[in-house]
Amino acid sequence: MTSKTIAQIRNEAAASLSPERQQQWEQFLTPMPIAEQAVSLFTPTDKPVRILDLGSGSGILSAVTARRSTRGSSVVAIEQDADLAQVSESSLRQVCEDVTVINKSVFEVLLDTQFDRVILNPPYKKISPTVIATSNGGVKVTNLYTAFLVTAIQALDEGGECVAIIPRSWMNGDYFKDFRKWMLNECSLDVLAVYRSRQEHFKDMNILQEIMLVKVSKRPQTKKVSVYAEAMPVAPLESQPHESVALKALLMGRDRIVRIQPQDPRLSGFGTISDQGLWVSTGKLVWFRNRDVLSAVERPKGHPLYWSDNQNGMMMVHPVECDREQWVTDGVDSRNVILPAGSYCMVNRFSAKEQSRRIHASYLCSSVGFVADNKLNYVHQGTSRRTVPLDDKVACGLTLWMSSSVIDEWYRQISGSTQVNATDLRQMPCPTKAQLTALADSLPIDADASQSHIDETIGRLFSWVQAS
């Protein structure tokens, strides 16, 4: 059976999926170029292998794996969609004699054997926090794809290898903390390949997440992790630029955030935001739960309301003309959402890798108590329970620092989701308050500063050879 025929079966199956069905089952069928790249990560062997495909879809991943494997290899494919289970069976029967297709949910199947190769492109869907039983207790998961990956890793025989096509979101953030710790303790992280463009890999599947290939194996941690920071789906993976990096250099903090590159040496001398006595919180107003207090005009005893719409470069502006109410009434006073007057660094909670700057920080100085929408993060010098405004110069300096290219590069290394999490920002390398004050004195926040001007100012202040 040729690659073209396998690809045709996949494409016909993809075309038959209605948008409603695709959304219900979270079905993103793997294109042939990515299937070939994923399977190429398995270590070649001249022995027959036992192959497991979790959520097999069209069967393309296990079919390509079986085609590249020694005669006598076997495949178990699990797919809960009855139509796709039949497609998997049809595909696999043409490349492998020993095939078992199980038409059930992955989590309903009790596997009675271990596997040499596990491959999967699981559904990407949030779920309520769930604990999956493991050999050493349990691991909390918050997304179907991590639940699938826990199942896949547990199905590996000693020395077995698993390749998964998954979103990059597991690498950072509090939601995936337990999963990261479990996985990194359970197996060796061998390969990380992050696709450069969100539009190129699953063109007919409308995927918005940043997608990557991950290879792990059931053995002690390998000395070096192969990292493809900007993989392309149109060329053999082995021919593309990559680095071999010790896992320790990719991990950050107790939460074991995984970077795609070692930290820039220019940042090695800085503590974190938390180390500097600062804290990152999320705006307290959830607008759709507080519609009754939103106001398009200022009311007596009311308060200003800030959204991401109020960000104008590095400054927060209020009021602005937009489709968002700019005020709240005094009915909000009893809801514990008002922040004290003073200076802050406000950060948009959402951004995409295609934007010129992943962290959009803006300086805010309010003479009155105000309210921040929960699509904004804000930096202050209090705690998780108590908000204390920043010194004005510190707020200005921090806004400049967070607007620099070196911090943009740092954040791109740790985050592949569209969310800018407060948890991640607390890990951000940050100068001392005295250094932030000096930065504010070097470049006024209200200046129409270009990116190069910001980077050069910071470079001079910290005596870097390069400012960006």
Q: Please, how many helices? A: 13
Number of domains: 2
CATH fold name of the largest domain: Rossmann fold
Mean pLDDT: 92
Order of strands across the main sheet = 3-2-1-4-7-9-8-10-11
Main sheet characteristics: 9 strands, mixed
How many runs of DSSP E, i.e. beta strands?
26
Q: Which class of the largest domain in CATH terms?
A: Alpha Beta
* Category by helix and strand content: alpha+beta
DSSP strand content: 25-35%
For CATH, the homologous superfamily of the largest domain is named as Vaccinia Virus protein VP39
Helix content class: 25-40%
Shape: elongated
Our measurement of the CA-to-CA distance between the termini, rounded to an integer number of angstroms, reads 51 Å
CATH architect. name of the largest domain: 3-Layer(aba) Sandwich
Integer-rounded radius of gyration: 25 Å
Unreliable spans: none
What is the element layout, followed by pairings?
Layout: H1 3-16, H2 19-25, H3 32-39, E1 50-54, H4 60-67, E2 74-78, H5 82-93, E3 98-102, E4 115-120, E5 126-134, E6 137-143, H6 144-154, E7 156-167, H7 177-186, E8 188-195, E9 211-217, E10 225-231, E11 243-245, H8 247-250, E12 251-252, E13 257-258, E14 271-272, E15 279-282, E16 294-295, E17 303-306, E18 311-312, E19 315-316, E20 327-328, E21 338-339, E22 342-348, E23 361-366, E24 370-372, E25 376-380, H9 392-402, H10 405-414, H11 422-425, E26 429-430, H12 433-442, H13 451-461
Parallel strand pairs: 1-2, 1-4, 2-3, 4-7, 8-10, 17-24
Antiparallel strand pairs: 5-6, 7-9, 8-9, 10-11, 12-13, 14-26, 15-25, 16-20, 17-20, 18-19, 21-24, 22-23, 22-25
Helix pairs in contact: 3-4, 9-12
